[in-house]
Write a sequence for this structure.
Protein backbone atom coordinates (compact mmCIF):
# COMPACT_ATOMS: atom_id res chain seq x y z
CA UNK A 1 0.00 0.00 0.00
CA UNK A 2 2.16 2.77 -1.31
CA UNK A 3 0.89 6.32 -1.73
CA UNK A 4 1.71 8.73 -4.53
CA UNK A 5 1.64 12.47 -3.88
CA UNK A 6 -1.05 13.99 -6.11
CA UNK A 7 0.23 17.44 -5.21
CA UNK A 8 1.63 19.60 -2.44
CA UNK A 9 0.02 21.94 0.09
CA UNK A 10 1.24 25.52 0.46
CA UNK A 11 0.28 26.95 3.85
CA UNK A 12 1.56 29.66 6.19
CA UNK A 13 2.27 27.04 8.87
CA UNK A 14 5.96 26.14 9.07
CA UNK A 15 5.84 24.35 12.41
CA UNK A 16 3.31 22.39 14.40
CA UNK A 17 2.68 25.19 16.92
CA UNK A 18 1.66 27.60 14.15
CA UNK A 19 -1.12 25.47 12.68
CA UNK A 20 -4.63 25.80 14.11
CA UNK A 21 -5.91 22.98 16.27
CA UNK A 22 -8.38 22.23 13.50
CA UNK A 23 -8.38 23.64 10.00
CA UNK A 24 -11.84 25.11 10.41
CA UNK A 25 -10.59 27.40 13.20
CA UNK A 26 -8.68 29.60 10.74
CA UNK A 27 -9.69 31.77 7.79
CA UNK A 28 -6.26 31.57 6.20
CA UNK A 29 -6.23 30.79 2.51
CA UNK A 30 -4.32 27.64 1.69
CA UNK A 31 -3.21 26.50 -1.75
CA UNK A 32 -3.58 22.93 -2.92
CA UNK A 33 -1.24 22.55 -5.90
CA UNK A 34 -2.17 19.48 -7.91
CA UNK A 35 0.62 17.97 -9.98
CA UNK A 36 -0.07 18.39 -13.73
CA UNK A 37 -0.36 14.66 -14.37
CA UNK A 38 -3.40 14.52 -12.05
CA UNK A 39 -5.05 17.79 -13.14
CA UNK A 40 -7.62 15.96 -15.31
CA UNK A 41 -9.15 14.61 -12.09
CA UNK A 42 -10.19 18.18 -11.16
CA UNK A 43 -12.79 18.38 -13.95
CA UNK A 44 -15.98 20.09 -12.65
CA UNK A 45 -14.48 20.63 -9.18
CA UNK A 46 -16.09 24.06 -8.87
CA UNK A 47 -19.46 22.31 -8.67
CA UNK A 48 -18.55 21.66 -5.01
CA UNK A 49 -18.61 24.32 -2.31
CA UNK A 50 -16.70 22.06 0.08
CA UNK A 51 -14.11 19.34 -0.37
CA UNK A 52 -12.74 16.52 1.74
CA UNK A 53 -8.97 16.97 1.64
CA UNK A 54 -6.64 14.13 2.60
CA UNK A 55 -2.99 14.86 3.20
CA UNK A 56 0.01 13.04 4.62
CA UNK A 57 1.23 14.17 8.02
CA UNK A 58 4.85 13.77 7.08
CA UNK A 59 6.04 15.16 10.42
CA UNK A 60 3.73 12.99 12.56
CA UNK A 61 4.83 10.32 15.02
CA UNK A 62 3.55 6.97 13.77
CA UNK A 63 4.40 5.10 16.99
CA UNK A 64 1.94 7.02 19.17
CA UNK A 65 -1.13 4.96 20.18
CA UNK A 66 -2.44 7.12 23.04
CA UNK A 67 -1.97 10.78 23.81
CA UNK A 68 -3.31 13.62 25.89
CA UNK A 69 -5.54 15.99 23.99
CA UNK A 70 -6.52 19.60 24.61
CA UNK A 71 -9.73 18.23 26.10
CA UNK A 72 -8.50 15.62 28.53
CA UNK A 73 -5.91 15.32 31.26
CA UNK A 74 -5.62 11.60 30.74
CA UNK A 75 -4.42 10.01 27.50
CA UNK A 76 -7.01 8.66 25.08
CA UNK A 77 -6.52 6.30 22.15
CA UNK A 78 -5.53 8.05 18.94
CA UNK A 79 -8.48 6.37 17.17
CA UNK A 80 -10.75 8.21 19.67
CA UNK A 81 -9.16 11.56 18.86
CA UNK A 82 -8.04 13.74 15.97
CA UNK A 83 -4.39 13.63 16.93
CA UNK A 84 -2.07 14.05 13.93
CA UNK A 85 0.03 11.27 15.43
CA UNK A 86 -1.27 7.80 14.48
CA UNK A 87 -0.05 4.67 12.70
CA UNK A 88 -1.11 5.98 9.27
CA UNK A 89 -0.92 9.78 9.50
CA UNK A 90 -3.62 10.54 6.92
CA UNK A 91 -5.21 13.84 7.91
CA UNK A 92 -8.81 14.57 6.89
CA UNK A 93 -10.07 18.17 6.61
CA UNK A 94 -13.30 19.60 5.25
CA UNK A 95 -12.24 22.61 3.18
CA UNK A 96 -14.19 25.52 1.70
CA UNK A 97 -13.32 25.80 -1.98
CA UNK A 98 -12.79 29.50 -2.67
CA UNK A 99 -11.59 29.33 -6.25
CA UNK A 100 -9.66 27.31 -8.80
CA UNK A 101 -6.62 28.71 -10.56
CA UNK A 102 -5.73 26.13 -13.21
CA UNK A 103 -4.17 23.21 -11.32
CA UNK A 104 -4.33 24.99 -7.95
CA UNK A 105 -7.26 25.10 -5.55
CA UNK A 106 -7.47 27.99 -3.10
CA UNK A 107 -9.27 26.77 0.02
CA UNK A 108 -9.98 27.53 3.66
CA UNK A 109 -10.14 25.03 6.50
CA UNK A 110 -6.96 23.02 6.03
CA UNK A 111 -4.49 22.76 8.92
CA UNK A 112 -1.58 21.22 7.01
CA UNK A 113 2.00 22.27 7.57
CA UNK A 114 3.63 23.91 4.55
CA UNK A 115 4.90 21.35 2.08
CA UNK A 116 2.65 18.48 3.22
CA UNK A 117 2.04 15.92 0.46
CA UNK A 118 -1.52 16.00 -0.87
CA UNK A 119 -3.11 12.54 -1.12
CA UNK A 120 -6.71 12.89 -2.26
CA UNK A 121 -9.63 15.26 -2.79
CA UNK A 122 -13.28 14.19 -2.68
CA UNK A 123 -16.56 16.04 -3.11
CA UNK A 124 -18.14 16.79 0.28
CA UNK A 125 -21.79 15.75 0.27
CA UNK A 126 -23.96 16.74 3.27
CA UNK A 127 -26.28 13.76 2.71
CA UNK A 128 -23.48 11.32 3.49
CA UNK A 129 -20.93 13.33 5.46
CA UNK A 130 -23.02 15.51 7.76
CA UNK A 131 -24.32 13.76 10.89
CA UNK A 132 -25.52 16.58 13.14
CA UNK A 133 -26.90 14.20 15.74
CA UNK A 134 -23.52 12.51 16.28
CA UNK A 135 -22.42 12.70 19.89
CA UNK A 136 -18.94 12.73 21.22
CA UNK A 137 -18.09 12.79 24.89
CA UNK A 138 -14.55 13.75 24.08
CA UNK A 139 -14.39 16.62 21.57
CA UNK A 140 -16.37 19.82 22.35
CA UNK A 141 -19.45 20.32 20.20
CA UNK A 142 -18.64 23.87 19.10
CA UNK A 143 -15.66 25.40 17.29
CA UNK A 144 -15.29 27.85 20.18
CA UNK A 145 -15.02 24.98 22.63
CA UNK A 146 -12.41 23.31 20.46
CA UNK A 147 -10.44 26.58 20.16
CA UNK A 148 -10.49 27.06 23.92
CA UNK A 149 -9.48 23.47 24.57
CA UNK A 150 -11.93 23.18 27.39
CA UNK A 151 -11.85 19.92 29.26
CA UNK A 152 -15.00 17.85 28.97
CA UNK A 153 -14.28 15.32 31.66
CA UNK A 154 -11.45 13.66 33.46
CA UNK A 155 -13.00 10.56 34.71
CA UNK B 1 4.63 7.05 2.12
CA UNK B 2 3.90 3.47 3.00
CA UNK B 3 0.76 2.40 4.80
CA UNK B 4 0.45 -0.29 7.45
CA UNK B 5 -2.84 -2.17 7.85
CA UNK B 6 -4.16 -1.43 11.35
CA UNK B 7 -6.75 -4.16 10.87
CA UNK B 8 -9.12 -5.77 8.41
CA UNK B 9 -12.78 -5.17 7.54
CA UNK B 10 -15.26 -8.03 7.56
CA UNK B 11 -18.31 -7.23 5.43
CA UNK B 12 -20.98 -9.17 3.52
CA UNK B 13 -19.79 -7.59 0.25
CA UNK B 14 -17.64 -9.95 -1.79
CA UNK B 15 -17.74 -8.02 -5.05
CA UNK B 16 -18.14 -4.43 -6.11
CA UNK B 17 -21.75 -4.87 -7.31
CA UNK B 18 -22.84 -6.09 -3.87
CA UNK B 19 -21.66 -3.07 -1.90
CA UNK B 20 -24.02 -0.12 -1.49
CA UNK B 21 -23.30 3.02 -3.47
CA UNK B 22 -22.50 4.70 -0.18
CA UNK B 23 -22.04 3.03 3.19
CA UNK B 24 -24.84 5.06 4.75
CA UNK B 25 -27.36 3.49 2.36
CA UNK B 26 -27.22 0.14 4.17
CA UNK B 27 -28.04 -1.02 7.70
CA UNK B 28 -25.74 -4.02 7.48
CA UNK B 29 -23.46 -4.54 10.45
CA UNK B 30 -19.80 -4.50 9.50
CA UNK B 31 -16.91 -5.61 11.70
CA UNK B 32 -13.70 -3.61 11.96
CA UNK B 33 -11.11 -5.99 13.38
CA UNK B 34 -8.17 -4.05 14.78
CA UNK B 35 -4.90 -5.93 14.93
CA UNK B 36 -3.83 -6.56 18.56
CA UNK B 37 -0.71 -4.41 18.33
CA UNK B 38 -2.92 -1.35 17.65
CA UNK B 39 -5.70 -2.13 20.15
CA UNK B 40 -4.34 0.38 22.69
CA UNK B 41 -5.35 3.14 20.27
CA UNK B 42 -9.02 2.21 20.83
CA UNK B 43 -9.02 3.47 24.44
CA UNK B 44 -12.29 5.37 25.17
CA UNK B 45 -13.64 4.73 21.65
CA UNK B 46 -17.17 4.18 22.95
CA UNK B 47 -17.29 7.88 23.85
CA UNK B 48 -18.00 8.44 20.14
CA UNK B 49 -21.36 7.68 18.51
CA UNK B 50 -19.83 8.02 15.04
CA UNK B 51 -16.39 7.38 13.59
CA UNK B 52 -14.53 8.38 10.45
CA UNK B 53 -13.28 5.11 8.98
CA UNK B 54 -10.48 5.09 6.41
CA UNK B 55 -9.80 1.93 4.45
CA UNK B 56 -7.76 0.92 1.44
CA UNK B 57 -9.65 0.19 -1.76
CA UNK B 58 -7.40 -2.69 -2.69
CA UNK B 59 -9.51 -3.57 -5.75
CA UNK B 60 -9.71 0.00 -7.08
CA UNK B 61 -8.24 1.23 -10.35
CA UNK B 62 -5.57 3.79 -9.53
CA UNK B 63 -5.17 4.97 -13.14
CA UNK B 64 -8.69 6.40 -13.42
CA UNK B 65 -8.78 10.23 -13.44
CA UNK B 66 -12.31 10.79 -14.78
CA UNK B 67 -15.37 8.58 -14.74
CA UNK B 68 -19.10 8.57 -15.23
CA UNK B 69 -21.04 8.53 -12.00
CA UNK B 70 -24.60 7.45 -11.21
CA UNK B 71 -25.50 11.15 -11.39
CA UNK B 72 -24.03 12.23 -14.70
CA UNK B 73 -23.92 11.03 -18.28
CA UNK B 74 -20.62 12.75 -18.89
CA UNK B 75 -17.41 11.86 -17.04
CA UNK B 76 -16.35 14.06 -14.11
CA UNK B 77 -12.98 14.24 -12.40
CA UNK B 78 -12.53 11.68 -9.64
CA UNK B 79 -11.63 14.52 -7.22
CA UNK B 80 -15.14 15.92 -7.91
CA UNK B 81 -16.77 12.59 -7.09
CA UNK B 82 -16.74 9.76 -4.55
CA UNK B 83 -15.56 7.16 -7.04
CA UNK B 84 -13.58 4.34 -5.40
CA UNK B 85 -11.17 4.61 -8.33
CA UNK B 86 -8.56 7.34 -7.78
CA UNK B 87 -4.77 7.67 -7.59
CA UNK B 88 -4.72 6.93 -3.84
CA UNK B 89 -7.75 4.72 -3.16
CA UNK B 90 -8.31 5.78 0.45
CA UNK B 91 -12.03 5.44 1.14
CA UNK B 92 -13.66 7.64 3.80
CA UNK B 93 -16.90 6.55 5.50
CA UNK B 94 -18.77 7.99 8.48
CA UNK B 95 -19.79 4.95 10.53
CA UNK B 96 -22.24 4.51 13.39
CA UNK B 97 -20.46 2.75 16.23
CA UNK B 98 -22.86 0.09 17.50
CA UNK B 99 -20.61 -1.66 20.01
CA UNK B 100 -17.07 -2.70 20.83
CA UNK B 101 -16.14 -6.34 21.33
CA UNK B 102 -12.55 -6.27 22.56
CA UNK B 103 -10.42 -5.39 19.52
CA UNK B 104 -13.40 -5.43 17.15
CA UNK B 105 -15.79 -2.57 16.43
CA UNK B 106 -19.26 -3.40 15.13
CA UNK B 107 -20.43 -0.50 12.94
CA UNK B 108 -22.96 0.55 10.32
CA UNK B 109 -22.31 2.76 7.33
CA UNK B 110 -19.19 1.24 5.80
CA UNK B 111 -19.23 0.16 2.15
CA UNK B 112 -15.95 -1.77 2.13
CA UNK B 113 -15.54 -5.05 0.30
CA UNK B 114 -14.82 -8.00 2.57
CA UNK B 115 -11.16 -8.20 3.50
CA UNK B 116 -10.33 -4.55 2.81
CA UNK B 117 -7.33 -3.31 4.80
CA UNK B 118 -8.28 -0.88 7.57
CA UNK B 119 -6.08 2.25 7.62
CA UNK B 120 -7.36 4.62 10.30
CA UNK B 121 -10.20 5.48 12.65
CA UNK B 122 -10.94 9.01 13.91
CA UNK B 123 -13.58 10.47 16.21
CA UNK B 124 -16.36 12.15 14.20
CA UNK B 125 -17.04 15.62 15.58
CA UNK B 126 -20.07 17.53 14.22
CA UNK B 127 -18.43 20.89 15.00
CA UNK B 128 -15.67 20.24 12.49
CA UNK B 129 -17.09 17.60 10.13
CA UNK B 130 -20.72 18.60 9.63
CA UNK B 131 -21.26 21.39 7.09
CA UNK B 132 -25.01 21.33 6.40
CA UNK B 133 -24.84 24.41 4.17
CA UNK B 134 -22.35 22.80 1.80
CA UNK B 135 -23.64 22.71 -1.75
CA UNK B 136 -22.80 20.28 -4.44
CA UNK B 137 -24.13 20.47 -7.97
CA UNK B 138 -23.05 16.93 -8.61
CA UNK B 139 -24.15 14.60 -5.81
CA UNK B 140 -27.85 14.58 -4.79
CA UNK B 141 -28.59 16.20 -1.46
CA UNK B 142 -30.56 13.31 0.02
CA UNK B 143 -29.73 9.66 0.63
CA UNK B 144 -32.80 8.70 -1.42
CA UNK B 145 -31.49 10.71 -4.35
CA UNK B 146 -28.13 9.02 -4.08
CA UNK B 147 -29.76 5.58 -3.89
CA UNK B 148 -31.85 6.29 -6.98
CA UNK B 149 -28.85 7.65 -8.89
CA UNK B 150 -30.91 10.47 -10.29
CA UNK B 151 -29.13 12.69 -12.75
CA UNK B 152 -28.65 16.27 -11.61
CA UNK B 153 -27.51 17.78 -14.88
CA UNK B 154 -25.77 16.88 -18.07
CA UNK B 155 -24.41 20.09 -19.29
Amino acid sequence: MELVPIGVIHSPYQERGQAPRQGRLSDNEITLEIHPQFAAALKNITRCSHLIVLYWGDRANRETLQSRTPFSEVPVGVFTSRSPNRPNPIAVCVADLIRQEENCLIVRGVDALDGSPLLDIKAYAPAIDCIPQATNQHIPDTLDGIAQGKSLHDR
